[in-house]
Amino acid sequence: MNGQSSIFSYKSLTIDENGWFNECSRIPSPHFNERPQQDDISLLVIHNISLPPGKFGGPFITDLFLGKLDPSVDPYFEQIYQLEVSSHCLIRRTGEIIQYVSFYDRAWHAGKSTYEGRDRCNDFSIGIELEGTDIQPYTQQQYASLILATESIKQRFTGITNSRITGHCNIAPDRKTDPGSSFDWNFYLKSLSNCVEQ
Fold first, then answer.
1. Whole-number Å distance between alpha carbons of 124 and 118
2. 120 bridge partner residues
3. What residues in the chain have per-residue pLDDT under 70?
4. Res 5: pLDDT
């Protein structure tokens, strides 16, 4: 796993009054701004990312979200190092969750996007990145962390229900394909339903 050996297993995840997970690493990104309406958080968007593409581990995703990606490290980075992008959270292959932007703020994860006829999904959504690719299976630890994170987010932001969780591919289908065919939507959504019913 390219240096990622520790497995993270969270027993619970809670969100503090400022919109940060209490139990996770916080690495604040400068790539955010205020939402037009802070009480209008009603969509969860699942993404994937790996840097360089198809390679896992290392600091490069965090470097990108902080605006500190070194273009000399990999030829691919020359294309993206000047992008101003972020996500609320990243879930690494180990299950570790890193949060970059408060849920109350607008992270820059969706880009040009539309959901159910409404544009600018960043305004009203939370973005979670999974370290991965469209074609490589995600890990059990990632699903476990994603399920816990989703339940905590749903509890705090009641506008987000199971039916208002989608992939980046669905809000920007002309540009994006993530989280890809490797993401098991059936397992994920059924697991959420089970968590709710218990």
1. 10
2. none
3. 1-5, 194-198
4. 61
Q: Where do we find the tokens 């490069």?
A: 60
At 49, which amino acid appears? I
Are 48 and 183 contacting, i.e. CB atoms less than 8 angstroms apart?
yes
The pLDDT assigned to 36 comes to: 95
Strands 105-107 and 32-34: antiparallel
pLDDT for the residue numbered 194: 57
Burial class (CB in 10 A: 0-12, 13-18, 19+), 44: buried
Q: Where are the beta strands (DSSP E) in the chain?
A: 25-26, 32-34, 43-49, 89-91, 97-99, 105-107, 114-115, 118-119, 125-131, 165-167
The set of catalytic residues is 129
Instruction: Name the β-bridge partners of 131.
Output: 49
**Torsion of Cα atoms, 106 then 175 then 184 then 9, to 10°:** -40
Distance in angstroms (rounded) separating the CA atoms of residues 7 and 5:
6
Assess contact for 133 and 49: CB atoms under 8 A: no
Tokens of 73: 């490290």
Largest CA distance in the chain: 50
Residue 38 is predicted with a pLDDT of 86
pLDDT at 196: 44
